[in-house]
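Researcher: Here's a chain I'd like modeled. Treat it as a single chain, no partners, no ligands.
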Amino acid sequence: MKIWLFVSQIEPSSIHDALTDDKWIEAMHDELNQFTRNNVWVLVPKTQDMHVNRTKWMFRNKLDEQGIIVKDKARLVINGYN
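Model: Modeled as a single isolated chain. Structure tokens:
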């Protein structure tokens, strides 16, 4: 028996597009919660001599073997230095 999940059919091209769809917002929350669970980052106050890495959201639909969209996946990646 196959369980159908409600997923977005379109991959957003920008953060602004993603923020208009509840399913992509949920995918973004899942990604941020993974950072917390895995204890991979700590927010610290910025000092004058600190360089800040920019980040960018990447959005993809994950497909099963038949090519049916089964999950929305959001990834937060480093976009380079200032």
